Every structure is written in structure tokens, then in C-alpha cells.
Amino acid sequence: MKALILAAGRGRRMEDLSEDKNKCLIPVLGRPLIEYSLDVASSLDEIQEIVIIVGYQAESIINRYGIIYKGKPIRYRIQYERKGLVSAIETAIPDLEGKDFFLFLGDEIILRGRHQEMLDAFKKEDLFVCCGIIRQDDPLQVRKTYAIIQGQDNVIYRLIEKPERAINELMGTGNCIFKYDIVNYIPRVPIHHIRNEKELPDLIQCAIDDGRLVKSFVITDTYINVNTKEELQRIEQVFKNQSIM
Question: Cα–Cα distance between 42 and 68 in angstroms, integer?
Fold first, then answer.
């Protein structure tokens, strides 16, 4: 299995903080944001290699981390046209080499993540996709990622990108595990009518509609996707005296 970390975007909503720096290198509690994903990926025995998708200020990430991180080899792929997460996964196809992969977003931080348990469930239940989720009391936060409708045994039937209103307390994260064959659904994914790019929930929905088994897994109780200065400030307040891992 491989880890796929997406770190190509500039992060314009971070304003001057990302003007001359890749957003994933912005320091959070004294460490670059991407390192929280790198630490998790390197801690999982099943992960044989880390693939990082880079784009904006690509050389800054490549020069900083080189070809190995905590014993795990790294390779890089440049996403020249940054058209969202599905495009980034498509860019990584040559580097995945037919292997299943654990997806991470370079701008996410998960506190006390249950990544190994999630990986164990993925393998034991022979899932096609396992979506890492949290239970979110604030409906406004759910609108920032994607909503989930599921049935018994956490089987997912519907995913909704950035919903107008929260349907329930389930909030998706970018930490998902995929069978390699998810890439075969990329051509089927529709272009989002607002963002004009292919969205991750729509990719997973294509697999669900084709009868593939997709389940959710509560990966943590504290999660922040760092897209704005306000979220950066909030993470400093929430995590300052806590362990990130």
C-alpha cells in the first residue's frame, strides 16, 4: 500500500501567509502543516512508500523532505494544472503502480487519529473505499467538507460536497483509503457546476452507484482543515497544549 499526500495548492485564502510559500509548509505549533500527515503515513507499517503531489512552490517541499521521511521512501509528482483533488489523484496514477492507497490532504490536522484501526477495518471487511469521518456538532463545519448519508453498519449511500445545510452530524475528511481500482471511475466523475472541477465525494459516489462497498469510519473527535487564517488561529488555540498524534 502507498500513502498519497496532496500538497499542490497555493491556498489563496491564507492570503499573505501563502504568497511566497506552499500552504502545507505554513508552521502550525512550530512545525510545517504537512508534517502531521507525513508523521501518520510514516507510522503505518502497511505503507511502503509516500507519494506527494506538489505544484505551487513545489521545490520548497521537495528540497525540504528529499527522498525519505522517518524511514519511508518518498517520491514526488508535479500537478501542473491544479484542478482539485480528483485531478491530483489522476496525476498520481503512474506512481501508485496499481497499489491501494491511503489518501491524506497536506492541509489537514487530525488529533488522536485512529488510522491503524481504520486500515485494519478496510482490510478485514474488504472495502472498496473507507472514508474517515468525524461526528461534528457544529453544522457550519460540516458545510466545509462533505456530508454523508449512511445506513446500517456504516455503509455509505450518498456523499454531498459542501452541502447547503448539514443533513446530520457526520462530516467527511480527506483521510480515506482506496482500492487502486477507484482510478477507473475518474472519467465518470461530473464537473462540479460551481467549482468547475471534479470533486472527491463525486468520485466515491461513482463507485457506490456501481455497487462497490463503501463505509465510513470515525477516525477522530478533533479535526481541522486549515484553509484560512481564522482556522489557523483556532488550531493554535485548540491544540497548543495537546498531542497532535
Answer: 10
Residue 242 grid coordinates = 495537546
Please, which pLDDT band fits residue 245 given cuts at 50, 70 and 90? very low
Query: For 225, how many CA atoms within 13 A lie in the half-sphere containing its CB?
Result: 20
Which residue bears the cell 506552499?
22
Kindly report, residue by residue over 154-198, the tens digit of the pLDDT: 999 999 999 988 889 999 999 999 999 999 999 999 998 877 899
**Structural domain harbouring 173:** 2-239
Pairing state between β 72-78 and 68-69: antiparallel
User: What is the DSSP secondary-structure string of 27-64?
Assistant: EETTEETTHHHHHHHHH-TT--EEEEEEBTBHHHHHHH
Which three cell numbers, joined as nine digits, stand for 171? 462530516
Question: Which position has the grid cell 483533488?
Answer: 85
Paired residues of 77 in beta bridges: 53
Task: Say if 27 falls within a structural domain.
Answer: yes
Structural domains of the chain, count: 1
Residue 137 counted as domain residue: yes
141: CATH: 3.90.550.10
DSSP the chain: -EEEEEE----GGGGGGGSSS-GGGSEETTEETTHHHHHHHHH-TT--EEEEEEBTBHHHHHHHHTTEETTEEEEEEE-SS---HHHHHHHTHHHHTT--EEEEETTEEEET--HHHHHHHHHHTT-SEEEEEEE-S-HHHHTTSEEEEE-GGGBEEEEEES-SS-SSSEEEEEEEEE-GGGGGGGGGPPPPTTT-S--HHHHHHHHHHTT--EEEEE--SEEEE--SHHHHHHHHHHHTTS---
Q: Tell me whether residue 244 is in a domain.
A: no
